[in-house]
Specification:
The protein is mainly β. The protein is built from four helices and 18 strands. Helix content is about 10%, strand content about 55%. The protein has an 18-stranded antiparallel β-barrel. A hairpin with a 2-residue loop joins β8 and β9.
Length: about 425
């Protein structure tokens, strides 16, 4: 009887070994890795003929149709302690008004890792500092995140960066230090700030009592000095809180009043963000954030600019155009609320995730609402349908945008 049981166990073990066998070679690091995606996107926009930004841009039509094709290619070559990392982006965009082509490297850098606790990177790197989902006040050396598409890849800057990491026993588990050199000239990084400066930045990371904490600092000359802190902590397995705080010294801001008078003011600015992420038992994910944009404009300052753009006076409109990059940028106001809810596979529809995003300018009460349907049930293919409604009173941020509504269909094929 014992023999039969032993044979049964061996057979069962044999069957399990066959079911769960794996090829260790599949997990070995390959010297060359390649991947990416191709994306096709079609957009239809219902233009806001009464909007100040519509008039400022000199449009004369009710709708705008736009098609965009994008290729994102990633490659990595590894040889010993060295690796070459490339992320290339190419796109073609066409609508009834213009055709645009763009190609560039989001990232292209060499990495040396002679020790598990030390890494040295040099080249074009897209740093991602901060814990916020929609905004990152402490992202001192990166391009701003798009709150309407937070997963979108962003172009980096040329820099040299190092990482020193040490692990410990006790409440303090990990310490990591990241110093960065970011030079700016007329030939590279020229959109970062004033040229002919070598800027210095640093981040000190601590994992203390299961809380992620970063201290960040920037100084140089291309931009004014700034420093900040962020944190993230899982209070339970399905509930996380996070926050960021940043202080910017001698921030210079250009203002324009309703009469077209332009002036510059210099002040210290404080930005802050607090947020949470909560996953319910029904697989609904809630993300909420409050954001104080210290470098933004008050409700009065923003409405003065929008009245000027709407004035119809060619001289005043020309003044508004000259200063418009600062006022017409995304989230140019001071205080915002971001709220997103996404439901995984509702009504047992597998690979289907609907979501709803609401962003509010708390000063003028204008808002944007974005429902989205995402389907990933076809291998290596994402299909996304998204709509956006903008609403607000006269001379409010979202009430004066160029678009009133927008519909977008996107197909992304991964390889």
């Amino acid at each position: 009887m014992k023999t039969m049981a032993l044979v049964a166990c061996l057979l069962a073990g044999s069957v399990q070994a066959e079911e769960f066998s794996f090829d260790a070679g599949e997990f070995e690091k390959k010297p060359f890795e390649f991947g990416g995606y191709l994306e096709l996107k079609a957009e239809w926009a219902d233009l806001n003929r009464d909007g100040s930004l519509y008039k400022l841009n000199g449009l004369d039509r009710d709708t705008l149709n736009r098609n965009t094709a994008t290729a994102k290619l990633n490659a990595k070559f590894t040889q010993g302690i060295a690796s070459l990392n490339l992320k290339y982006s190419a796109s073609v965009q066409r609508d009834e008004l213009a055709s645009l082509r763009d190609n560039h490297f989001d990232e292209a850098y060499v990495s040396l890792k002679p020790d598990p606790g030390f890494t040295l990177d040099a080249g074009k790197i897209a740093m991602k500092w901060g814990k916020g989902y929609a905004w990152n006040p402490v992202g001192f050396i990166e391009r701003p995140k798009d709150p309407n598409d937070v997963e979108l890849a962003r172009e980096g800057y040329a820099m040299v960066a190092a990482d020193f990491i040490r692990n410990f026993d006790g409440d303090l588990k990990t310490v990591a230090f990241t110093p960065v050199l970011l030079p700016v000239s007329n030939h590279y990084n020229n959109d970062f700030g004033a040229p002919d400066h070598t800027n210095v930045a640093a981040k000190l990371y601590l994992l203390y009592k299961d809380t992620d904490i970063d201290f960040v600092w920037f100084n140089g000359g291309s931009r004014t000095s700034r420093f900040g802190i962020d944190f993230s902590k899982n209070l339970t397995s399905n509930f996380e809180i996070h926050g960021e705080w940043a202080r910017i010294r001698d921030f210079e801001q250009r203002l324009i009043d309703a009469a077209g008078n332009v002036k510059s003011v210099t002040r210290d600015a404080t930005s802050a963000l607090v947020g949470l992420r909560y996953l319910t038992q029904n697989d609904t994910t809630w993300i909420a954030e409050l954001y104080r944009n210290g470098t933004g404009y008050s409700e009065r300052e923003l409405s003065d600019f929008l009245r000027l753009a709407d004035s119809g006076n060619p001289l005043l409109v020309n003044k508004a155009k000259q200063i418009s990059p600062a006022f017409a940028r995304p989230n140019a106001g001071r205080d915002y609320l971001y709220l997103k809810a996404s439901q995984k596979e509702p009504f047992d529809i597998v690979y289907f995730t609907p979501s709803l995003t609401w962003m509010v300018n708390l000063a003028d009460k204008s808002w944007s609402l974005t429902p989205e349907l995402l389907y990933t049930g076809i291998t290596n293919l994402d299909l996304r349908l998204r709509a956006t409604w903008l609403h607000g009173k006269s001379y409010s941020e979202f009430g004066e945008k160029q678009n009133r509504r927008k519909l977008e269909l996107m197909a992304r094929f991964y390889f």
